Amino acid sequence: MAKYMLLIFGDQAQWDAMTPEEWKTHDAAHEAFRDAAGAGVKGGAQLESPQVATTLRAGSDGGLLLTDGPFLETKEGLGGYYLVEADDLDQVTKLAALLPEVRASHSAVEIRPVVDHG
Q: Which of the residues 5, 62, 65, 70 has an alpha carbon 20 to 30 A from that of 102?
């Protein structure tokens, strides 16, 4: 079994504009994903808005530079993640297809294998 990180990206303004009924449907789709993945889900969470993120990087003077928010040139920000264990990419792709962000016009799910340094 390999581990995969599912990174959920989308437009925060679109998520903020969702009605309570839309959130109920959205949450039900995530529940269906978790049910289908079962014990394969090793972790996951919705993240706070990218606007409250803090970015840490090296400054030009060699020190540390702390900035508010992500360093983004796009409307899409990281909204959540799942860590999933699956047999192969085909299996995790079928599971990820259950996530509502795959079909929404403003979002997507990036699937990335986790490196095992073992």
A: 70
The three-point CA angle 39-104-1 to 5° equals 25
Token pair for 99: 């996530």
Q: Which residue has the tokens 């079962």?
A: 38
Ordered DSSP codes for the chain = -EEEEEEEEEEHHHHHT--HHHHHHHHHHHHHHHHHHGGGEEEEEEPPPGGG-EEEEE-TTSSEEEEES---SSSEEEEEEEEEEESSHHHHHHHHTTSGGGTSTTEEEEEEEPP---
Amino acid at 50: P
Prediction pTM value:
0.87
